[in-house]
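From the pipeline queue, job 12 of 40. The input is one protein chain; the requested action is below.

Action: predict structure.
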Amino acid sequence: MSVIKFKEANCKNCYKCIRVCPVKSIRVEDEQAQIMNDECILCGACLSACHQNAKIVRSDIWRVKQFLDDGEKVVVSLAPSFVAAFDYDHPGQIVGALKALGFYSVQETAIGALNVSREYRELMMEGSMNNIITTCCPTINLLVEKYYPELIPYLAPVITPMLAHGKIIKYTYGWENVKVVFIGPCISKKEEGQDHQTEGAIDAVLTFSELLSWLEDEGIVIGEQEAELFDGIEPLTTRSYPIPMGVIKSMDFKDESYGYHVTGIDGIEQCKEMLEALKTGELNGYFIEMNSCLGGCLRGPAMPHSNALYFAKRQQLIEYAREQQNICTGIGSSHTDIDMGRVFADKSSHDPIPDEDIIRDILKKIGKFTEDQELNCGACGYPSCREKAIAVYQGKAELYMCLPYMRQRAESLSNAIIGSAPNVIMAVDENLEIQEFNAAGERMFSMSRQIAIGKKVYELVDSSDFEYVLSTHHPIINKKVEYPEYGVVTAQTIVYVEDQNFIIAIFRDITREEKQAQQIYKMRMDTVDMAQEVIDKQMRVAQEIASLLGETTAETKMTLTELKDLILYDGED
């Protein structure tokens, strides 16, 4: 499993992790950032840069807990930077806290640093290396192996203090009889602990942040524990390893540096500058202490304290390294017969480099047709537009990661949509000032956009609906409002945009529809009147016909009656 992983759900395409990555080992694919493990040097810069909690550091807590549950004899190798990581009254309280978790023994990693310093001194005395780069920082080792393989001969062929101490513990207790857990401020130690050259010297790596989380879960407060002695021998000056020049100080050169210029440098960018100088042959006869973290291990990516406390913590560690004595059991040995050698290998990748025509074609796709259009703003994470184009060609970046281009494109599309919209679109801020006004608004209100922007909305229309929406945040949808002064009738939708704290108003001109509706209504009423007139006329005709029929019927009845009587009674007289 990779040491660092990204959580897809939280990646916001801000590209900040790419900007801070010193070797650009983060790929963006399908709008998600991904670590390129073969190119990552595990400096941890992306961890502190990301405020979306989009990154996960692999945790070994479960593995360590399993060791303890299985009844294993588990020994802690504690990095000397613990002095700056935890709150306590006495350094021995951290020992008490770790033993409360179930650890069998707690030792200082600085014991391993004794052997490392001894190896460095012997290399200098031997004088066979033109330049010597210290190899205590696994991130620097990865940087050289992956990006400056030609400088591998300058890497001191020596393991780190963590591995040296792990070997010492294994030799002391027996390789099969003990588990070694390193605890420190560095995430690159997690990968180093699994290296095939370690021979199983380290079984798990925890960061200080992980340890604090575990202690909190168990309800263990370091400052409330009884102080106990560290196991192992007294490491003395090697406790200063976590600060810049700490390795050199531990070697106590005094007036003799065996013909080498001794110097120290910290911070990835500064280390890269030094490596470039070594690469071009500008430096010869140097012993160089390199640390990837600016300020040394006290500013490691897994340190739980703020960098604002750095100088106070630095002084605290200096005093601890100089003054602390008799806090170790003194039991054990530095085992000078243990092999402390290390072989470094070329781990560089060879990505294809596009030619000039391909680079220009990629740049043209994001609106950069000439060099003066290459802003080199670095918003995408790459220092120049050309480098970003190369990354696109190599499949490390997406074409449209160019924020100025995407903003320009979005604004252009937005302006085109708003400008060509048939409805009036108006944006009004919390002070009821008009912030946006489109072409339809210019036509309806006979006012140019330049004049309208900045005016109060009540200078154009009744603002009561705007004030209602602003105060209640409740939208008004399709409300019919007539503006006789402008000769229009509108269907108004007014909504509050919470994220921006302003109002969007859309006025749809329904004047024609209203006129048509009125005409249709008039036609209907006229038709009703005509129908009523026909009905009335028909009723009058019916009544007249009925009246005529009534008179005729009466006369006919009378005549027929007389005729009947005449027939019935004729001759009876």
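Job complete. The mean pLDDT is 87.
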